[in-house]
Amino acid sequence: MRFTWSNAYSTGVQTIDLQHQALMAIINDLHDCCARGAPPGELRPIMQRLAHYTVFHFRAEEALMGKAVLPIDWHTEHLAGHRAFTDAVQQYLDRSEDMTPEDAEKLQAYLVEWLKKHILEADKTLGKFLMQQALHSDAFDDRR
Ligand SMILES: [Fe+2]
């Protein structure tokens, strides 16, 4: 399943949106690799890129969350979502060498679905909190 960006996925925070697009581009690379029937070994470097970028992106988003005032339960749940996704990506990376093409396709579909849902439900809400608290424009400015 390929992911196509639309405004519906915009959080209102440009840096986060660009990172989401970069994340989806890697997941689309996985899709293209599966679609042309590439051997599982070819998935590994893409999975590695995905694992690295996932860590980078969640760190950036969580740094931003740390600057905002957020409902504690919502914040905790958002972090738990990030951990679960990071763990899933890492587990798949660990078994990427002996994954069947069917497993790889299932994984790719799971990643797209998870990310779409997470952006629409959790990250768009984060965008609203950040905008309300005027933390969106220079979101990654350390002076704040
Ligand atoms: Fe998030």
Strand content: under 5%
Low-confidence stretches: none
User: In CATH terms, what is the architecture?
Assistant: Up-down Bundle
Oligomerization: single chain
**Topology pattern, helix = H, strand = E:** HHHH
Each distinct ligand: fe (ii) ion
The CATH class designation is Mainly Alpha
CATH topology description: Four Helix Bundle (Hemerythrin (Met), subunit A)
Q: How much helical structure, as a percent, in the residues?
A: over 70%
Shape: elongated
Distance between the termini: 39 Å
CATH superfamily: Hemerythrin-like
Tally of separate domains: 1
Total helical segments: 4
Could you provide a short overview of the structure?
This protein has helices at residues 14-35, 43-67, 72-94, 101-132.
Give your account of this protein's structure:
This protein is mainly alpha-helical and 144 residues long. The protein has a single domain, classed as Four Helix Bundle (Hemerythrin (Met), subunit A). It contains four helices and no strands. Helix 1 packs antiparallel against helix 2, helix 1 runs antiparallel to helix 4 and helix 2 packs antiparallel against helix 3. The structure holds fe (ii) ion (FE2). The site of fe (ii) ion has 6 residues, from helix 3 and helix 4.
